[in-house]
Design goal:
about 350 residues, alpha+beta, BirA Bifunctional Protein, domain 2, seven-stranded mixed beta sheet, two-stranded antiparallel sheet, binds adenosine-5'-[phenylalaninyl-phosphate]
Length: about 350
């Protein structure tokens, strides 16, 4: 393994002498950390390393990954600055005095909520990532600890493509890519469209949106999760909110929780929105399972993490007082026109 790591380092040292532009640095990142990248393959080999050597080799591998990622990121930044400067100084000019077409649309209410949440999290140091809608079975299930034949797959039956890929059932499908892309400390949120083979009703759609978040660092605890969620909700609802955790189950978090928020509309006294219970079930969450960290090339002996998966349609319904999720996908202009860009 050590030899293989050295070989890759030598290869990179040779390669970087030839790199001329941003595209080539980006290609090198994919070559190293992409789906069948040289490093990705090395991480797969970790499963064959004898247990007593796993810690040491894992550390060496992680160090090498961090070193190379930093080198690539640094150069990508420099190159993109250079390319931007070139473009600014080039003869290409946009005539900003040209008249534009009159724009009469408004943002979809879900987009407005998504952007508000993104703004709150970015102000707390999170990056916003994108996920694929068509995903590999590995990323959607296996990487997040839902192996073949696990009963949790039944709860997320989805649409399978002929090539064996799936329409992603949850934003957690992006976790593995994100854990591999960044070196801890990681703070990322990733909104996206999800699909499930569901019986559609007022609160369930076959196509819906989630917004997921992960935090990975040394000594991350449930306290971090509660802090960030309370901050976000207080800003969205414009007042301090109270949350509570109940035990839950997800194969990719251990322990797992369901987070409820004290009803912001009646302050917990009971109203139609909280069905008189005083609490609204808001988002599942938990501490990232060590196996999920390992699958993402992160050593769970050194780092811990927490994750949450917010239903974006649910948040939109809450903040607009809509009581039927189907309205959000209906294209009903009478409804959608009521929401304007803030
Ligand atoms: C999940 O999808 C987990 N991946 C969330 C998670 C992430 C847990 C990270 C722990 C850590 P769940 O199936 O409960 O969990 O969906 C999360 C949210 O998505 C739900 O609370 C709900 O708001 C929304 N959701 C799920 N299914 C649907 C559906 N069919 N229609 C509309 N919203 C849905």
């Amino acid at each position: 393994m050590q030899n293989k790591i050295n070989e890759i380092k030598q290869y990179i040292l040779g390669k970087i002498k030839e790199i001329k532009d941003l595209k080539e640095w980006q290609a090198l990142r994919v070559e190293m950390f992409g789906k069948s990248g040289k490093f990705t393959e090395l991480f797969k080999l970790m499963r064959d390393v004898p247990a007593e050597e796993k810690g040491k080799i894992g550390q060496i591998l992680n160090n090498a990954k961090q070193e190379i990622e930093a080198l690539i990121t640094d150069n990508e930044r420099k190159m993109s600055e250079e390319e931007l400067n070139k473009e600014i100084n080039s003869a290409e000019r946009i005539d900003i005095t040209l008249p534009t077409e009159k724009c009469t649309g408004s943002l979809h209410p879900r987009t407005i909520i998504q952007r508000e949440i993104e703004e709150v999290f970015t102000s707390m140091g999170f990056v916003v990532e994108d996920g694929n809608e068509v995903e590999t079975e590995y990323n959607n299930f296996t990487a997040v600890n839902v192996p073949e034949n696990h009963p949790a797959r039944d709860m997320q039956d989805t649409f399978w493509l002929d090539n064996g890929e799936v329409l992603k059932t949850h934003t957690s499908a992006a976790q593995n890519r994100i854990l591999k892309k960044y070196t801890p400390p990681i703070r990322a949120i990733f909104p996206g469209r999800c699909f499930r083979n569901e019986d559609v009703d007022a609160s369930h759609e076959n196509t819906f949106f989630q917004l997921e978040g992960v935090i990975v660092d040394k000594d991350v605890s449930v306290g971090n999760l509660i802090y960030f969620m309370k901050e976000m909700l207080s800003k969205i609802f414009n007042k301090p909110v109270e949350v509570r955790l109940r035990p839950g189950f997800f194969p990719f978090t251990e322990p797992s929780f369901e987070m409820d928020v004290r009803c912001p509309f009646c302050d917990g006294k009971g109203c139609p929105t909280c069905k008189n219970g005083g609490w609204i079930e808001l988002c599942p969450c938990g501490m990232i399972h060590p196996q999920v960290l390992r699958n993402g090339g992160i050593d769970p002996e050194v780092y811990s993490g927490c994750a949450f998966g917010l239903g974006l349609d649910r948040m939109t319904m809450l903040s607009t007082n809509l009581n039927d999720i189907r309205e959000l996908n209906s294209g009903n202009l009478k409804l959608l026109k009521q929401f304007k860009i803030k």
